[in-house]
Each structure stands twice: as C-alpha cells, then as structure tokens.
Amino acid sequence: MVVEMHAGLASDGGSKLKMLLTFVDALPNGNEEGIYYAIDLGGTSIRVLRVEVGAGSVIINRKVEHQPIPEELTKGTTESLFNFVALALKNFVEKEDGKDEKRALGFTFSFPVRQNSVSSGSLIRWTKGFSIEDTVGKDVAQCLNEALARCGLNVRVTALVNDTVGTLALGHYYDEDTVAAVIIGAGTNACYIERTDAIIKCQGLLTNSGGMVVNMEWGNFWSSHLPRTPYDISLDDKTQNRNDQGFEKMISGMYLGEIARLVLHRMAHESDVFGDAADILSTPFILSTPRLAAICEDDSPDLSEVRRILQEHLKIPDAPLKTRRLVVKVCDIVTRRAARLAAAGIVGILKKLGRDGSGAASSGRTRGQPKRTVVAIEGGLYQGYPVFREYLDEALEEILGEEVARNVTLRVTEDGSGVGAALLAAVHSLNR
Ligand code: ADP
C-alpha cells in the first residue's frame, strides 16, 4: 500500500491508486460559527442540509431533507439534473432562512472528479447508473452555481468534496488529531492529510498549512502481493468494472455476501453437503452482506438463525448442524479477510504518515511521546457489523503492536458527507 501510495503521488497513472488532489488545505477545527448549507449527491437521492455551528465544536442545529432523484433525470441533460438539485435547495433555503440570504454551500459529489481548486472540478465519468454524456468534462460546481443563479438563489459552492473528505472534515472538527478518514459501506475509500512537498506530481504546490487532503480512491488499490482466490476472479469477471476496484471487491458491503455465495456454490457443486436443494446458490448476489453478517452473529446453540436464512433465503431446508457450522465458517473467513485487509490499508496510511511506530525519520514521536492519531471512520458495513469491527480492531493491534495501537483511535463519525461538507464550506468560504 505504501509503495503504491508513493507511485500514485509521483505521477498521474503511476499506480492504480489515483491519489487525487482535493485542494482542501484547511480542515474545520471547532471555531467555525454561522449557518452553512450542503448538498449531498451521490446516489439515488439527494440530500440538502442546513447546519448551524457555534464556537467550541458545537453543532447548534442540523436539518436534513431527502429527495429521490427521478430516474429520467439520471439519464437526461446536465441542465435538468442541476436545475432539480438547485430547486430542491431553493425550496429548503426559502423555508429555513428566506430567499435573500447569502450562504456558503458545501457540495458533496460522490463521482470521480478531477479537482481544479477546492471549489471546482470536472467530472471524469459517471458511475452508479448515471449517464448524462454532456456533463463529462464539465465543472460540476459551475453547473450547480449556474443552476442556482437561474433560480435566483444567493448561494454558491465554496467547497466541492467527496464523501471521504467530508468524513475527515467532521472527524477533524471534533478532534484535531484526526489525520485520515475511511469509509467502509457498500463501497470503500480513504483519504488523509499529505505534506504538499510529498505530492511530487504537483510540484510547486503551495498551501498555507503545508498539507493537503489526498483522496486515495483506495477501493481501486491492487498489488501483486495481494493473494487473489478463484472466487475473487469469478466475482470480478461478472462485474461491469472488471479489473477495477479490486481492493473494494474484497472488502466492501456490496461484495462480501457474493464472495461467500461463490464459495458455497462450489461446495454445493463438488460435494453433497447441501443435498440436491442448492440450485439457488447459482444465483448471483442471492446472499446479501447483512445476511452474511446475521449468519456470523448467530450465537444460538443450534444456529437457528442460520437455519432460518438457509431455509428462507437460500431455499436449503433441513441443513444439519454440521452443515450450518460450515456455512458460518465460510462467512466468518470472508468477513475476517475483509476486515484484516481494511486494517492493513489503515496501517499503510499510518506508515506513510510515520505514525505506525516504525520509521526513524518521522517516527511519529515528539519528545519521546508517541503521537496520538485519530482515523475517522464511517459506513454501513463498519457501523452495522460488530464482528467486522472486532476483526478490524484485532488486526490493527496485531500489526501495530499493543503500544502503538494504544495511540491510534478509530472514531466513528455520523454523516460526514453532509455535515462535513457544510463545515468545509465554512472553512473555505470567502467570508472567513
Ligand atoms: P453507502 O456506502 O452506499 O453510503 P452505507 O454506508 O449505508 O452505504 O453502507 C451500506 C452497506 O453496508 C450495505 O451495502 C450493506 O452491505 C452494508 N451493511 C449495512 N448494514 C449492515 C449490517 N448490519 N451488517 C452487515 N453489513 C451491513
């Protein structure tokens, strides 16, 4: 991971790790005051937020509204999509503050963007089912600003970020020792604060803080050192983004159930553990990750929850206890590998920052004291699946050693992609 981080920082295309510049060179520290808005666009619905903050890391008030995006807008024109977003914000702002208020806006746009400044960046390509050809290559913040102007709203984008950067911002708002953020949900990604002089691909880059948040896009990490099983290969073969997002396909919620399904399918094929009732195991994605989690977390002596899931969802009735144990074991191994890889990735970041307790040059110690290090973390898989968390923590301690691990805290934040973006708007607004 560290080798690939260096390669991605050295040149564009130098690694599968994109190591994208975010131009975020200052993070909220709790002194922000005022009312800020955020828009979170990254899936099937948009969210608009209003966040009121007071000095001392106090969030005085937070309001959120969801609006599903009509399917046709995800395949229509740039103007119609951004008009829709602007209108949702306009209605929200007018209800909350009246229409003439001038406010800073954080725009969380969770699609691949090549950032030009903290408040502008062009769309590289759409993902997640969106396909609006004429947006590709355009500055999405400008698209939104134009739509906001068209509907007469006095609000402009001051920070264009992705959800990982929002999570880091929110983590840093509460705790200034936060140096990185990780998301482990349906997908996975991470970002961290890098020294600008280490960002070789952008020589001469100067920031006031001497640092900049780098969006690793770590879901796409790959290395020949990473052991890949036939199940990983089968899974990859059937995805639309073949050969991409390799790390994500071993770790995140979208895939864990499917990996276990592929293992069980092979077992069914090559043995008679499931009798002849296992046809359904050939159906892709029939085992969801929350069900895999429920299988692992069944602590009843007769594994009754496992029996229920096998019966109701996989149409495998009457599996004997021994078979149910086998299913638990498979799900457990898939979970454990994912959690340990995520932990290894986190240690990679700490190592790059000299905070893993090893290197001599930047040993992560000041006057003999190990530096406290906080990593903000979010995502449905991490937050909803205690066994995953337990394995991740265990692996962190195993790799770092007890003494160093004691100084590393994983802190769960809530809604970094919304609140974090509003806080970044505060930090980067011209009125600061
Ligand atoms: P996103 O990554 O799209 O923002 P979330 O962070 O909400 O979404 O994560 C959703 C994912 O987390 C789901 O795809 C699911 O795989 C996983 N997940 C949610 N709850 C659980 C759970 N209780 N156990 C295991 N996995 C879960």
From TrEMBL:
Residue span(s) of domain Hexokinase N-terminal: 1-173
Listed Gene3D superfamilies: 3.30.420.40, 3.40.367.20
Reactions that this protein is recorded to catalyse: D-glucose + ATP = D-glucose 6-phosphate + ADP + H(+); D-fructose + ATP = D-fructose 6-phosphate + ADP + H(+); a D-hexose + ATP = a D-hexose 6-phosphate + ADP + H(+)
Pfam families on file: Hexokinase_1, Hexokinase_2
Annotated GO MF terms: ATP binding; D-glucose binding; glucokinase activity
Metabolic or biological pathway, per its Swiss-Prot or TrEMBL entry: Carbohydrate metabolism; hexose metabolism; Carbohydrate degradation; glycolysis; D-glyceraldehyde 3-phosphate and glycerone phosphate from D-glucose: step 1/4
Highest taxon of the lineage: Eukaryota
InterPro entries tied to this protein: ATPase_NBD, Hexokinase, Hexokinase_BS, Hexokinase_C, Hexokinase_N
Residues covered by the Hexokinase C-terminal domain: 180-427
Enzyme Commission code: 2.7.1.-
Gene Ontology biological process terms from the UniProt entry: glycolytic process; hexose metabolic process; intracellular glucose homeostasis; response to glucose
This protein's GO CC annotations: cytosol; mitochondrion
Keywords for this protein: ATP-binding, Glycolysis, Kinase, Nucleotide-binding, Transferase
Family per similarity comment: Belongs to the hexokinase family.
PANTHER family: HEXOKINASE, HEXOKINASE-4
Full protein name: Phosphotransferase
Organism of provenance: Phyllostachys edulis
Lineage: Eukaryota, Viridiplantae, Streptophyta, Embryophyta, Tracheophyta
